[in-house]
From TrEMBL:
Pfam families according to UniProt: TauE
Signal peptide stretch: none
UniProt protein name: Probable membrane transporter protein
Similarity field: Belongs to the 4-toluene sulfonate uptake permease (TSUP) (TC 2.A.102) family.
The organism's place on the tree of life at top rank: Bacteria
InterPro entries: TM_pro_TauE-like, TSUP
Coiled-coil residue spans: none
Primary location group: membrane
Membrane topology: Multi-pass membrane protein
Presence of keyword Cell cycle: no
Bilayer-spanning residue ranges: 7-33, 45-66, 78-94, 100-119, 131-150, 156-175, 187-209, 229-247
Subcellular location(s) of the protein: Cell membrane
Length: 261
C-alpha cells in the first residue's frame, strides 16, 4: 500500500503521542492501531505494523529507565522470557483466529483495573513485599504476553497493574519494568508477524522515529513526576480503551448489554 505525505505525517504524529503515553502508563496502541486501520490497513496488518513502530519506542523507554538504574534485569530476565514465549503464541494464534471475541472480555478487565486505581489504596512510590513468588510472576507475565501478541492495546496497563497489586512494586518501578517486559513481548510478536508477511516496513519505520522521541520524553516525565501522573493516566487510558472497544456495535459485551434492554 502507498500513502501520501499528509497521511504519513499524521501517522507519525500519532506515533509520537502514543510513544509518550506508552512510556508513562501504557495504552499507546489505543491511538496507533485505530489510526492505522483508519487509513485502510486490515486489522492484522495494522497490529503488525504497530508492533514494529512500538518496539522502537518501547526500546527507547527501556534505555532511558536503565540509564537511571530503574530496571532489575537479573530479577526480570525469566519473566521477560515468559513474555516473549507468550507473545509468540499469541501472534501465531492471531494469524489463525478472529481476535474480535477478546473485545467482549477486555472492557470488563479494564474497568476493574481503573476501579482499583480510583478506589483502592494509593500505590506507594516504594517497593513493598510481594504477595506472589517468581513462578506466579512468570506465568502472569506470559499470559499478558499472549494477549500482547494476539491483540495488544492496554498491555502496558495490565503489566503495571499486576506488578503493583500482586508483586508490591512502586508505580515508577512497575512502569520501568513494564517497559522491559513489553519490549520482550513486542519483539516476539513482531518476529512472528514478520514471518507471516504482515508488516508494512516503510510506514512502520517512519512511525518508529516519532515513537522513539515520544518514548524518551515519556520515560523522563515518568521518573520526574512519578505516581502523580502515572496513576491518573492509567485510569484515563483504561477507560478510554474501554469506551473505544464498546463503541463498536458488534462488540460482544455491547450486544449482550443491549439484549438486556
Amino acid at each position: 500500500m502507498e500513502f501520501g505525505v499528509e497521511v504519513i505525517a499524521l501517522l507519525m504524529g500519532v506515533a509520537f503521542v502514543a510513544g509518550l503515553i506508552d512510556a508513562i502508563a501504557g495504552g499507546g496502541g489505543l491511538l496507533t492501531i485505530p489510526a492505522l486501520m483508519s487509513v485502510g490497513l486490515p486489522p492484522v496488518h495494522a497490529i503488525a505494523t504497530n508492533k514494529l513502530q512500538s518496539s522502537f519506542g518501547t526500546a527507547s523507554a527501556v534505555v532511558a529507565f536503565a540509564r537511571k538504574g530503574r530496571i532489575d534485569f537479573r530479577r526480570f530476565r525469566w519473566p521477560a522470557v515468559g513474555a516473549f514465549v507468550g507473545s509468540v503464541l499469541g501472534a501465531w494464534t492471531l494469524q489463525r483466529l478472529d481476535p474480535a471475541f477478546l473485545s467482549g472480555l477486555i472492557p470488563v478487565m479494564l474497568v476493574l483495573m481503573a476501579a482499583y486505581f480510583l478506589f483502592g489504596p494509593k500505590p506507594s512510590e516504594e517497593d513493598r513485599h510481594s504477595r506472589l513468588g517468581t513462578t506466579a510472576l512468570l506465568l502472569i507475565v506470559a499470559a499478558i504476553g499472549f494477549y500482547d501478541g494476539f491483540f495488544g492495546p492496554g498491555t502496558g496497563s495490565f503489566l503495571a497493574t499486576a506488578l503493583v497489586v500482586l508483586f508490591g512494586m512502586g508505580l515508577v518501578s512497575a512502569t520501568a519494568h513494564t517497559k522491559l517486559l513489553n519490549l520482550s513481548s513486542n519483539i516476539a510478536a513482531l518476529i512472528a508477524l514478520i514471518i507471516g508477511g504482515k508488516v508494512l516496513w516503510t510506514l512502520g519505520l517512519l512511525m518508529a522515529l516519532s515513537s522513539v522521541l515520544g518514548g524518551q520524553i515519556g520515560a523522563h516525565l515518568a521518573m520526574r513526576v512519578g505516581g502523580k501522573v502515572i496513576r491518573p493516566l492509567l485510569v484515563v487510558m483504561s477507560l478510554a480503551l474501554t469506551a473505544k472497544l464498546l463503541w463498536d456495535p458488534t462488540n460482544p459485551l455491547r450486544v449482550w448489554l443491549a439484549g438486556l434492554y
